[in-house]
Amino acid sequence: MKTSIKQLLIICALSVPTLATFSAPSSSAKLQELWRLEGKFNMPESAAYDAQRQMIYVSNVNEYAKDSNGFISRVSARGEHLEVEWMTGLHSPTGLAVKGDKLYAVDYDALVVIDLHNNKIIMRAPAVDAEQIPVLNDVALAENGDVYVSGSRSRTIYKLVENKLEVWVKDDELLKTANGLLVYQNILYHGGNAWTAFDLETRRPVKSLIEMGEGLVDIDGITADGTGGFIVSLIDDHRLWSLKKGANPKPLTEDEVKGIDMHFVPQSNLLFLPRVGNTLSAYRLVWD
């Protein structure tokens, strides 16, 4: 979470093709903006792409508070149709993730699950320490269906267990200002104050994977680049960065995009990016 947690704590044809040839990128890329929706949102935080429905969901924090004023927007993948307040009745939704017919949304002190077939909230799973205001942030989904959520103030990663967010890992240093999450190949990657990686089976940090993010601080959004590496955004750096195992972090591009929690679709080189300034942009990444 870029604009809120930081303050609290101190789509060619624009449809996505079903298959595309994708070659391994070099260390840099050019961003080709395909479309932009500017000034349409209210503190947009996260974008999640739904390939089945060709939709993008965007969380709107609308001031971080438990006030029922937050909402989720729904945008067609071409950017032609926008429902600003598609899903209301939320407090301050941040991280989003889609799997099948469900949209998972982090909402202040709980995880909300939305049925995308009926467009209804079907579950609200609170954090076990919700009364202590854990300031929940991002959500990540594993291939086996497990769901993980980060807690910025509580310095915790939670796991959804029987309709409740239970503590999975708590670490005052590694999870300081816990932020972006992503599960990739049985590893849970985490942003926040510093880049970390946890083995899903042992819950232990993986040093060799932590090294790829060495030197970066205040990591916000994390998305896989389709080649085993990652694209990340930083709170205090308006560029996007490329992280790869065995290499130092490098700017993906020098463009100042002011990105937050994005979603990259490697099959088509499309990046859906909420941006500071209440904007959502769709970019095609052209690798050098």
What does this structure look like?
It contains two helices and 23 strands. Helix content is 3%, strand content 49%. It starts with a helix and ends with a strand. The chain is mainly β and 288 residues long. The strands form six sheets. It has a four-stranded antiparallel sheet with strand order 1-23-22-21, with no helix packed on it. A four-stranded antiparallel sheet has the order 2-3-4-5, with no helix packed on it. A four-stranded antiparallel sheet has the order 6-7-8-9, with no helix packed on it. The protein has a domain of 186 residues: Neuraminidase. The N terminus is likely disordered.
The strands making up the biggest β-sheet line up spatially as 1-23-22-21
Sheet with most strands: 4 strands, antiparallel
Order of helices and strands: HEEEEEEEEEEEEEEEEHEEEEEEE
Query: Roughly how many Å apart are the termini?
Result: 30 Å
The CATH architecture term of the domain at 5-10 and 31-43 and 121-287 is: 6 Propeller
CATH topology-level fold name of the domain at 5-10 and 31-43 and 121-287: Neuraminidase
Low-confidence segments: 3-26
Say which CATH homologous superfamily of the domain at 5-10 and 31-43 and 121-287 is assigned.
TolB, C-terminal domain
The CATH top-level class label of the domain at 5-10 and 31-43 and 121-287: Mainly Beta
- Helical run tally: 2
Q: Helicity range of the residues?
A: under 10%
General shape:
globular
Q: How many beta strands in the DSSP annotation? A: 23
Structural class: mainly beta
